[in-house]
Amino acid sequence: MKLSHLLSAITVEEVIGNEEVEITSLECDSRKISLGSLFVAVRGVNVDGHRFIPIVTVGGVAAIVCEELPERLESTVTYVKVSDSAVALGFLASQWYGNPSRQLQLVGVTGTNGKTTTATLIYEMARLEGYKAGLLSTVVNYIDTEAVHADQTTPDPLTLNRLLRQMVDAGCEYAAMEVSSHAAHQHRIAGLHFAGGVFTNLTRDHLDYHKTVDAYLAAKKSFFDNLPATAFALTNADDKAGEVMLQNTDARRHTYSLRTRADFTGKIVESRLDGTLLALNGHEVEVLFTGRFNAYNLTAVYGAALLLGWNPDRVLVDMSRLVPVAGRFQPFHSTDGVTAIVDYAHTPDALVNVLSTIRDIVGGRGQIITVVGAGGNRDKGKRPIMAREAALRSDRLILTSDNPRDEEPDAIIADMREGLDARALAATLCIADRREAIRTAVSLAKEGDVVLVAGKGHEDYQEIRGVKHHFDDREVVQEALSQL
Ligand SMILES: CC(=O)N[C@H]1[C@@H](OP(=O)(O)OP(=O)(O)OC[C@H]2O[C@@H](n3ccc(=O)[nH]c3=O)[C@H](O)[C@@H]2O)O[C@H](CO)[C@@H](O)[C@@H]1O[C@H](C)C(=O)N[C@@H](C)C(=O)N[C@H](CCC(=O)O)C(=O)O
Ligand SMILES: Nc1ncnc2c1ncn2[C@@H]1O[C@H](COP(=O)(O)OP(=O)(O)OP(=O)(O)O)[C@@H](O)[C@H]1O
Ligand SMILES: N[C@H](CCC[C@H](N)C(=O)O)C(=O)O
Ligand SMILES: [Mg+2]
Fold first, then answer.
1. Cβ–ligand 1 contact at 49 (below 6 Å)
2. pLDDT tens string 10-47
3. Residues 92 and 108 occupy one common structural domain
4. Which residues line ligand 2 (CB under 6 A)?
5. 469 in the same domain as 421
6. From the CA of 466, how far away is ligand 3's center (Å)?
7. Which of 45, 76, 96 is the last residue of a domain?
8. Does residue 189 share a domain with residue 260?
9. What is the rounded average pLDDT for all residues in the chain?
10. For the CA of 89, the nearest atom of ligand 1
């Protein structure tokens, strides 16, 4: 592809050199370039990509996109100056892959919790409606029915557009994707053409990265600020940040709610551990999901489905055919009446939601035993709050390791313990070995009790100092239950 064709997709400040040069590949990582590549120098979180300009020049790149021109210019390289390389990379990646997001109806889902669930269900719903569809999510990506391993919630622009291209080539008409706050902030989604955006909720997470709640909100809001007028923007009217999200969007504004008047309303008629009778815009449907938070997700999916123009009657029927996402409120039962639930709750708010849901259903008839940890190298401020919220809503609490990454497991547990008063501490055990922690919780449970194993959900690894060791809460839980 000619450089000039790529450049027609971005706003350039200055070009020095030949714009008609042939580009053999588009890269933002100096370790991946080859002869004739276009290298985009992005200022990252750890390092400034501009640092690698001398290396890629020696490596034979044909052109370089950057925010700051190097002092020494080579006659063999075309230099393109832009005001924001990360934004440029997004648009260039779209152009490189033939703008696949314009050939699909792409729906983005953002918010602190519920992104994976909501995006996955929109994908499932498209398939139930008879369409080929794609999915980009924390758990797994799908190109029609082909599962592709997911490294990140929202991949970098090159991976993202490559996957969207594969979806279009496979005949997909729809795609759903999660838009993480990191991705929005780093412009990983720049250049994408969305048919719709959904906001789930905003509570505390990732303050290690965004520093303040306002900055975190601004990152999520930027997704809606950039939606085109042709798109729909569907927000949660019950969330404090719901209205703010749509303040500056050009998209068509719509709301969903479980509490007030909205375009799409959900009402829990009856709740059980294995399902809910839900009324969507007044129509009753039996769904295979539990909890108020899932009623929110389903109402959002229902709204998105109607805004995509699918048949309302068929959508209602298909809502009852949707099945829960791996590791999200996934129940396991022992033969003697103990239930264990594996859930991905890894924020204070998610723990509150999941534990309140369990308490509503169990009532005073059984005890709740919670096993939870917090990830290393992530938001430290949420640790004591997670422990406190879990202790408040559990009869017994076992603090353990999540992914310790580069931190000491005991130090993370100590941070969590800071949130507990003397009474809570008396009902709390600290067992850093997660397998031991789960086994202990299960062995403490009696008939009618519920063990909640929170934080890792679908993850099948434990990340310790850069190495992922196989570990799966669901396997450990099943093994422990079978030994009761
Ligand atoms: C902290 C963070 O978000 N980092 C992301 C970021 O990388 P970075 O800014 O650190 O990159 P960098 O290492 O500083 O490098 C800057 C530039 O120099 C280039 N480089 C670097 C080294 C080199 O030798 N040569 C070279 O050219 C890099 O390719 C890059 O273009 O941009 C990369 C490309 O998009 C991401 O893969 C990377 O995600 C890292 C791996 C990560 O762990 N991110 C997590 C926090 C994350 O994004 N999580 C969210 C989900 C959160 C949630 O669950 O809600 C997600 O979307 O997955
Ligand atoms: N709408 C919701 N509101 C609050 N909590 C929710 C909601 N949906 C799910 N949860 C809780 O949050 C956990 C994570 O759900 P999900 O994976 O769908 O969210 P996510 O936004 O994709 O998370 P991540 O950012 O880590 O990928 C669930 O296991 C559940 O405990
Ligand atoms: N994808 C999110 C959630 C991780 C969940 C938890 N298991 C952890 O490792 O902290 C993150 O990377 O922050
Ligand atoms: Mg997710």
1. yes
2. 999 999 999 999 999 999 999 999 999 999 999 999 99
3. no
4. 113-117, 138, 153, 178, 200-201, 293, 296-297, 328, 343-345, 349-350, 353-354, 457
5. yes
6. 14
7. 96
8. yes
9. 96
10. 31
